[in-house]
Design brief:
Keywords: DNA-binding, Transcription, Transcription regulation. The protein is an alpha/beta fold and about 240 residues long. It has 10 helices and 5 strands; from the N terminus they run H-E-H-E-E-H-E-H-E-H-H-H-H-H-H. Strands 2-1-3-4-5 form a 5-stranded parallel sheet, sandwiched between helices. Helix 4 (about 115-120) links the parallel strand 4 (about 100-110) and strand 5.
Amino acid sequence: MTTAETMNRAADRGQYRRPTASERSAGGSAKEAPQGRVSVAVYAEDLILRTGVVHQIRPRPEVELMDESEADRAQVSLVVVDMVDERTIQLLQRLQRNTSTRTGLVVGFFESGALQTMIECGVAAVLRRGEADQDSLVHLVTAMANGEGVLPGDLLGKLLDHVSSLQRTVLDPRGLSLSTLTTREAEMIRLVSEGYGTAEIAQKTSYSERTVKNVLHEVVTRLELRNRAHAVGYTMRHGLI
């Protein structure tokens, strides 16, 4: 079977190519990335896209390309596509189930509606293919390995607008927030941190003392804390109030 026939069959089945032994650097080993190097598996929808990315990052000492048999052990999975379509979503969802890897997306065309999909699929970084030179690819990979996220400026702006809209239109009307505390819980914990007692909190929030006690007890229990003071310390350390 020719290379072209193999690629066509893979595309028909919605498969993406993973690294092969012949595409790895001659002296590299996929079993364990050398100390300080980031192990990377590249997934691309066709040979041309994959070859371009591999050609860029293979010479860099910061990166260790993984063989197909070891791809699931990579620190970073790099998905290279023209656009986010149904096959790409299926791949991203499969990679999301692998908790040992973080996923980055190198994409040619990024539709505005794909932002929500990207979030749901756990994508940690996005790079437009037109900007994917060697340095930017290596920066993307190393940033993800360090637990960071990378987004083009315009997508970051859209993400912040999306979060703001979610808070305003969905969470606020229900008295919820993006933190682990509801708006009411956060307000009561904040008042505790300012030294107010149960009766004073009840007066300031227009709830009964019984409700205040129940709310504070729920926070302490749910977060597995010891008491109100512990709750104040915990929420302040984690930026919840």
